[in-house]
Structures are given as C-alpha cells and as structure tokens.
C-alpha cells in the first residue's frame, strides 16, 4: 500500500493549510504571548507579519507550481541546491519543528484550561492535568492513524477551521460596538523595536503554517495547481481573520494595555463579561483549533519520514501504510516523540517554562527552514532556465525571495540572541542527532529526489525534469 494518489482536491489542501495556521488557536496562544513583547502594537505587528508571510508564500509557490512530493519543503531544497545533505538537513529541521510545535500546542491547551479554572477560582487538580494532557496527546495521533486522509481533512478539519474563522469574525463584530479604532493599526511609541520584532516573528511563524499543504503533493489531483491554490486560500482567510481577531482582542480589553500584556489569557477575561457560556464556547473552539493544528503537523511529519524511507534515507519500516492510506508507523513515532518531549521539558522547567522553551526552539527551527527555502527559489528557477533577463522577472523571481530571506535571517539572528542554555542545548542535540542520522543512513540514500509528475506518478527528479523541460519547450515557455 502507498499514499492515496490524486485523492485530494483544493478543499483538502485548504483544510491542511488552515489546520496548521490555526487562526483562533494562534490568537489565544501565540498572539497572547506576543502581546507581552509588543503591547498595543500587536495589531501592527500582525499586519507586518501578514505582508512578510505573503512574500514567503509567494516564494513557496514558485516551488509548488513546479514540483510536488510527499517530502514537501525538503524536496524543494533538493530541487534548488541539488545537495542531498541540505535536503536531508531541511527534512530534519521540518520534522522536529512539527514535533516541537505539537508539544507547544498541547501545553497551550493545558495552560488555557488552567487559566480558565483559576479565573473562576478553581484549582487544576492532578487528575484533571493528566486527563487534559493525555487527551491532547492522543487525539491527533489517533485521528491521523485511524481516519482516511481525505475524510479527515474534508470533514473534521475543515469544520473546525470554519468555526475558528466565524469565532474571530464574531469577536471583531463585537468590537465594532465600541467604534472602529484606526490607531490600533498604526505603530505607537510604547514599545521597543526589539519587542515589536519578536512579536512580528511569533505571528509570522503561525501564518507560515499555510505552507504545509505542500506535503499533500503526492495525494492531490493536479498538484501543481491545487496545492498552490489551497495554500494561498488558507493564508488569506486565516491571515485576515487572525488580524481581525487580534484587533478585537485589543479593542475589547476592558483595562489598560499594560494589563493586557500581563494577562496570561486575555480572551477569557474579555468573554467573561458576556457570561460563562461564551467563555466555554471560545475555549472549546480554541482547544479544537490547537488539536486540529496538531493533526496537520502530524500528517506533515509522518510524510517526511515516509518519503525519506522510500529514498533510502530512513529505516524502511516508515514506509508502512495502513488501509486508510496513512503512514502509521511514522504517525505513531511522531506521537511518541511529542509525548517524550513534553514529559522531559515539563519535568525540567514546569508547564510554563516548558511552553516558553519549546516555543523558542520551534521558532528557531522554523525560521532556519524558511531561510533555506526562500534563498533557494531563485537558484531553482535558474536551474530550470526560467530566470528571464527582464526587470519584472528579476523583481518577482529574485528580489521577492531574497527580501523574505533577509527578513528571516534578521529574525533568526534576533531570536538566537535570547536563547537560554536549555534551548541552546536542545538545538545542539537536534543537530548532533541529525548528523548521526545522516552519517549512518541518509548519506547512502537520495533524500529529496522523489517527486510526482502531472499524472501523480512517483518518479525521480531527473526523469521529471526531462519531461518538464520537454513540456515547456512544446508550450514555447522558457526552460533549460
């Protein structure tokens, strides 16, 4: 058995992209944390992140409109650099960033429930803590293991994504009762440039989640078209609703902005003014949003292992696929690693400390991957002979990817300056594990070399490129 070739459409790609973007989950977790750095400038920081995210999604589209694979980003890296070491490095970076993000989202759910109980004067008992953590860990793994990928994405995931958008639009409509405050969309002088930059990066990481639709390339009909469209649709819908929801969060806050930045969960305080029922509804949808996000990252991480295995860069057991078309051994490993990370970090730093540390490592890994992707886009086009010597081509195909690469590089440097010893040690451990994996297994394989053609048939990249170039020449388009 293998992945379900050509079974998915733009609908499922949109659902996958929206799952990892998780607009409501991001507002109650990432955005709330970012407010501590940016204060009332969080709406402005979110707009900047949306514009930068659009640049990156555009750069990613340069790949996804030409290449499709279950390997997603790391296949793109091989197409650009033709280096199996860099392709494998990207695979490791993305795999661990997804696993770490899973752990971050589980802790976000726990902290959200704990804050809700504390708001109403209750304590989080040990048995409830275990129940919340266990359910949050098991749900994405079981759903990704047991459900057909088309049914999972087109029903459960897309339903929750729709609820998220409606909830955020509802909050925005509620905020308009106080009038429209245009000043929240412009920067103010009550925050440092560094704080604004950190908040910008945190929001950018969540919006970039729309790119995970690329991991469905092998399973999507007309992948070069549908993956790209699904990704853009989710980015626009998820990004705009995130900005509007963030505006509502600030506009509806009953106190001063200092109190907003010090609140662990401001959305609870805001909705509590309308009764306990709105609070419960928002928390339930937000929880489901974070769980759905973990389904999206689990699907992506499992396909990385599956594809590496087919390319002889990972143990063959990861090629195992069940009757639902899911790489079940890889899926179970993702769940196991998420649980292990959660246990170790919580044991070492407590729940809040683990949330911060895991989030920092996730951000670093994510940005490293984005630098590799965006910087390689012009090189990939050059290899295809598609860099025409015109001002328009140089702007769209060189300047745009290089611009977002510069933004990501600046973010990487800025984020690295504030890493703690524990976070630095974790990144060093991932690096050593990746090097050992490469030296023992991956260097004997061909990571990044399997893609699907226009008929969803898996072929080597050299075979695909010969067909691609022949098709380009027949159509009178640029091509090598």
Q: Can you offer a commentary on this structure?
A:
With 480 residues, this protein is an all-alpha fold. Helices cover 74% and strands 1% of the residues. The protein has helices at residues 10-21, 23-38, 42-64, 73-81, 84-119, 126-146, 149-175, 193-207, 223-251, 257-262, 266-272, 276-310, 328-383, 391-417, 421-440, 461-474, and strands spanning 450-452, 458-460. A two-stranded antiparallel ribbon has the order 1-2. The longest helix has 56 residues, at 328-383. The protein is globular. The two termini are 36 Å apart. The model has no long low-confidence stretch (mean pLDDT 90).
List keywords for this structure.
mainly alpha; about 475 residues; 16 helices; single chain
Strand order in the largest sheet: 1-2
Average pLDDT number: 90
Gyration radius, rounded: 22 Å
Q: What is the string of SSEs from the N terminus onward?
A: HHHHHHHHHHHHHHHEEH
Q: Percent of residues in helical segments?
A: over 70%
Distance between the termini: 36 Å
Number of helices: 16
Strand content: under 5%
Low-confidence stretches: none
Structural class: mainly alpha
- β-strand number: 2
What overall form do the CA principal axes indicate? globular
Main β sheet profile? 2 strands, antiparallel
Summary, kept brief:
The protein is mainly α and 480 residues long. It contains 16 helices and two strands. The longest helix is centred in the C-terminal third of the chain and has 56 residues, at 328-383.
What is the topological layout?
Blueprint: H1 10-21, H2 23-38, H3 42-64, H4 73-81, H5 84-119, H6 126-146, H7 149-175, H8 193-207, H9 223-251, H10 257-262, H11 266-272, H12 276-310, H13 328-383, H14 391-417, H15 421-440, E1 450-452, E2 458-460, H16 461-474
Helix pairs in contact: 1-7, 1-9, 1-12, 2-8, 2-9, 2-12, 3-8, 3-9, 3-13, 3-14, 4-5, 4-13, 5-6, 5-12, 5-13, 5-15, 6-12, 6-13, 7-9, 7-12, 8-14, 11-12, 12-13, 13-14, 13-15
């Amino acid at each position: 058995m293998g992945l379900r070739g050509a079974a998915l459409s733009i609908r499922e790609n949109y659902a996958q992209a929206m799952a990892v973007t998780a607009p409501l989950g991001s507002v109650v977790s990432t955005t709330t944390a970012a407010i501590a750095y940016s204060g009332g400038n969080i709406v402005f920081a979110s707009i900047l992140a949306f514009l930068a995210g659009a640049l990156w999604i555009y750069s990613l589209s340069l790949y996804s409109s030409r290449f499709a694979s279950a390997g997603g980003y790391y296949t793109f890296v091989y197409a650009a650099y033709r280096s199996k070491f860099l392709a494998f490095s990207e695979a490791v970076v993305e795999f661990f960033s997804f696993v770490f993000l899973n752990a971050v989202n589980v802790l976000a759910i726990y902290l959200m429930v704990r804050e809700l109980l504390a708001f109403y004067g209750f304590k989080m008992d040990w048995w409830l803590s275990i129940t919340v953590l266990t359910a949050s860990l098991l749900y994405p793994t079981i759903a990704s293991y047991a459900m057909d990928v088309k049914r999972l994405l087109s029903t459960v995931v897309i339903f929750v994504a729709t609820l998220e958008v409606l909830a955020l639009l509802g909050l925005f409509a509620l905020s308009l009762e106080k009038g429209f405050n245009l000043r929240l969309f412009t920067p103010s002088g009550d925050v440092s440039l560094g704080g604004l930059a950190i908040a910008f990066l945190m929001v950018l990481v969540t919006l970039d989640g729309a790119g995970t639709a690329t991991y469905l390339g092998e399973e999507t009909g007309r992948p070069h078209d549908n993956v790209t469209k699904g990704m853009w649709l989710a980015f626009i819908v998820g990004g705009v609703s995130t900005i509007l929801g963030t505006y509502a969060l600030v506009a509806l806050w009953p106190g001063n902005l200092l109190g907003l930045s010090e609140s662990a969960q401001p959305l609870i305080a805001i909705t509590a003014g309308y009764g306990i029922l709105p609070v419960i509804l928002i928390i339930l949808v937000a929880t489901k949003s974070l769980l759905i996000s973990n389904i999206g990252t689990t699907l992506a991480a499992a396909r990385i292992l599956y594809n590496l295995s087919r390319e002889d860069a990972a143990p063959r057991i990861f090629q195992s696929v069940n009757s639902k078309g899911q790489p079940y051994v890889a899926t179970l490993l993702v769940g196991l690693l998420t649980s292990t990370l959660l246990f170790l970090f919580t044991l070492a730093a407590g729940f809040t400390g683990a949330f911060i540390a895991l989030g920092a490592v996730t951000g670093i890994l994510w940005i490293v991957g984005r630098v590799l992707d965006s910087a390689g886009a012009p090189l990939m086009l050059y290899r295809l002979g598609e860099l025409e010597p015109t001002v328009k081509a140089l702007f769209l195909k060189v300047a745009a990817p290089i611009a977002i690469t510069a933004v990501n590089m600046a973010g990487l440097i800025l984020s690295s300056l504030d890493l703690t010893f524990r976070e630095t040690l974790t990144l060093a451990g991932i690096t050593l594990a990746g090097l050992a994996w490469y030296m023992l297994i991956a260097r004997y394989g061909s990571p990044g070399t399997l893609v699907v053609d226009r008929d969803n048939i898996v072929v080597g990249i050299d075979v695909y490129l010969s067909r691609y170039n022949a098709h380009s020449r027949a159509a009178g388009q640029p091509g090598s």
